[in-house]
Amino acid sequence: MPTKVVFFLLPKLHLLDLAGPAQVFSTANDLGHGYDLYYVAEVDEIVTAQGIPVKARLDWPELGPADLIVVPGWRSPRFSPQAPLAAVTKQRLRTHHAGGGQVASVCSGADALGAAGLLDGRRYTTHHDLTETLAARYPKAQLIRDVLYVEDDRVITSAGIASGIDLALHLVAVQRGAEAAARVAREMVVYARRNGDELQESAMLRHRGHVSDLAHRVQDVIDSRYADQLRLAELASGVGVSERTLTRVFTAATGLTPLRYQQILRLERAENLIGHGTTIEAAARAVGFEDARMLRRLRSRPAAG
């Protein structure tokens, strides 16, 4: 079943807070990853902070634990004593989360989650201009500064404006895999990052911050077949260039040779398997190494960029 993503819209919402994440999930759906988008409000038309009216539905779709509610930011909680949210909407947010669902916010949308009681006892972030206001308003929550997004017990908050794209790409990566998120980022021509408040980034996203179509096409092949024995000649033939040209363009775009990129993908997947109890030997075989010697050698190297 497709994941339902409900955007709850408040008056004077910021367009990019809504459009950025909506584009991510819409693009993911276009690529076959199953997302249905809904736009709900307490009135049937919202005028954005940028002056554009947006139509919304008043009724909510039926939601399950796999579904997501996103509250985009609006202008601005600094000028109102509390989030302009009806009691029934606050209860709906609480009920969805209590039933196992995810709730997310962009920018000042964190104020809505706080008003619903969903920030209490949890870590969160928001736009840097709003940190002092929300820290005072929700003293039971732990504000995390200077990060793109924070996830705590199915409550996901992001910083300001464009960070909603990063949050949505992160959710696609978690729900549908890093390869899916990388493809979405490529389609949107954005720098794909998953750093949030985490220390690790998937190589599938970390090395997509370029605009070389040829390198992206080769990465698409390696991402989907990283456990296979991929010859440079096969990769070059697939994109219609010489091996020398492929190596030059790919290295300039990603900072890695195609082989090194594949090794990093294998290593990351193997580390994930080992972290979940798989033996080094079994992990090596699962990611395409003939034996564990190469995996051990790669694990002993300094972390790749």
By CATH reckoning, the class of the largest domain would read Alpha Beta
- Taken in chain order, the helices and strands follow as EHEEEEHEHEHEEEHHHHHHHHH
**DSSP summary: helix tally:** 13
What does the average pLDDT come to?
A: 89
Instruction: Quote the distance from N terminus to C terminus.
Output: 37 Å
Protein name: Helix-turn-helix domain-containing protein
Organism: Kribbella qitaiheensis
Keywords: Transcription, Transcription regulation
GO molecular function: DNA-binding transcription factor activity; sequence-specific DNA binding
In short:
With 305 residues, the chain is of the alpha/beta class.
Characterize the structure shown.
The chain is an alpha/beta fold and 305 residues long. The chain has two domains: 3-179, Rossmann fold (3-Layer(aba) Sandwich); 210-300, Orthogonal Bundle (Arc Repressor Mutant, subunit A), CATH 1.10.10.60. 45% of the residues lie in helices and 13% in strands. It is built from 13 helices and ten strands. The strands form three sheets. A six-stranded mixed sheet has the order 2-1-5-6-10-9, with helices on both faces. Strands 3-4 form a two-stranded antiparallel ribbon. The protein is elongated. The mean pLDDT is 89. Keywords: Transcription, Transcription regulation. Residues 216-305 form the HTH araC/xylS-type domain.
Task: Pick out its properties.
single chain, 305 residues, alpha/beta, Rossmann fold, Arc Repressor Mutant, subunit A, 13 helices
Helix and strand arrangement:
Elements: E1 3-9, H1 15-30, E2 35-41, E3 45-47, E4 53-55, E5 68-71, H2 87-98, E6 102-106, H3 109-115, E7 123-124, H4 131-137, E8 142-143, E9 149-152, E10 155-158, H5 163-176, H6 178-188, H7 203-206, H8 213-224, H9 232-239, H10 243-254, H11 258-275, H12 280-286, H13 292-300
Parallel strand pairs: 1-2, 1-5, 5-6, 6-10, 7-8
Antiparallel strand pairs: 3-4, 9-10
Helix pairs in contact: 1-5, 1-6, 5-6, 8-9, 8-11, 9-10, 11-12, 12-13
